[in-house]
Amino acid sequence: MNSFSKGALYVVATPIGNLDDLSRRAMDTLAQADLIAAEDTRHSVRLLDHIGVRVPLISLHEHNETSRIERIKQALDDGQRVALISDAGTPLISDPGYRLVQALRAADYTIVPIPGPSALITALSAAGLPTERFLFEGFLPARGSGRRKRLNDVVELPVTLVFYESPHRISQLLEDIDTVCGERHLVIARELTKTFETFLQGTARSLLERMAEDSDQMRGEFVVMMAPAPEKALTGSSQVDADQLLSSLLEEGVGVKQAAGVAARILGGRKGDWYQQAQQLKDSALRK
Ligand code: SAM
Asked: Is 231 among the domain residues?
């Protein structure tokens, strides 16, 4: 069995559905804790009963987190081992705990992560979408206007986007993705690690049609992932902007090489390509 230092906070990930996903180290940590701070103590009792752990519990949720900080500091100062858990997955990931960990980190307490399940990483690991860069947006605002604004803010990013959503709002989220993002490729992971685990993929519109045909597809918990926006090609309106930028620089007497360097820095792409474009613009200006 692992042994654990006294006076430390252990941030323990717990299963997102399948109880067998609780790691050996997580079990040992919970068994050796003197105090467990849980998002919902009644919910966590079921997990602790399942592994035969009986340790004093206190609640720590979004409405009492700040007032719990002093209580937990006191326990740590008394040399207790304190574990932090949430209802499911990794604490702090769309779950309480950030304010506590921030306060303890600022005061130089020992904080030990005990890694394990998180719906975000579980979903990404099997979605088949690019993972070298992704943006986790968590839950979007509940109000439609706020949700559409946040979608607008991120729709052009060339990275995989990841959202959490509840069954109450999954169809509204898909409607808004359809409105703001159009035909983008989505992968939806539902009920991960549970009996009805399902991955669906397609456009927002096709997924809405699928859910309308089979309402079971709207039940449970969801991770919605969107493929990265395609990198902008140097065509259409970008071409016009690029030409305007290069022409203005050339008119100001900037050399072709320097103009290409500025365009590459501002617009991205290869300096050599911008050099050719700037040279063509200069040649055609001279011919006029
Ligand atoms: N801390 C958790 C984590 O590490 O993933 C997230 C907690 S957050 C309050 C709950 C949301 O996570 C759900 O609404 C859903 O979007 C996602 N989620 C949690 N468990 C899931 C599961 N088994 N399958 C799909 N999504 C899940």
From this structure: no
Convert the pLDDT of each residue in 16-36 to its tens digit.
999 999 999 999 999 999 999
Q: For position 257, what pLDDT does the model report? A: 81
**Is residue 237, in this structure, part of any structural domain at all?**
no
What's residue 25's pLDDT? 98
pLDDT given for residue 260 in this prediction: 75
What is the whole-number distance in angstroms between the Cα of residue 127 and the centre of ligand 1?
15
pLDDT of residue 28: 97
First to last CA, the chain: 82
Position 173 scores a pLDDT of 98
Any idea what the CATH number is for the domain that residue 55 is in? 3.40.1010.10
Range of the structural domain that residue 67 is part of: 8-116
Number of neighbours of residue 142 by Cβ within 10 angstroms:
11
Instruction: Extract the residue ranges of the chain whose pLDDT is less than 70.
Output: 1-2, 232-240, 265, 268-273
Predicted pLDDT at 184: 97
Instruction: State if residue 189 touches ligand 1 by the CB under 6 angstroms criterion.
Output: yes
Atom of ligand 1 nearest to the CA of 13: 4
Encoded amino acid at 215, one letter? S
The answer to whether residues 131 and 28 touch, using CB atoms and an 8 Å cutoff, is: no
What span, in angstroms and rounded, lies between the C-alpha atoms of 114 and 97? 14
Residue 118 beta carbon below 6 angstroms from any ligand 1 atom: yes
d(CA 226, ligand 1 centre) in Å: 17
Total domains present in the chain: 3
CATH number for the domain that contains residue 142? 3.30.950.10
pTM of the predicted structure, to 2 decimals: 0.82
Q: Indicate whether 43 and 126 sit together in one domain.
A: no
Q: What pLDDT shows up at residue 261?
A: 74
Tell which atom from ligand 1 comes closest to the C-alpha of 139. 16
153 and 217 share a domain? yes
Helices 204-213 and 170-181 pack at an angle, to 10 degrees, of 150
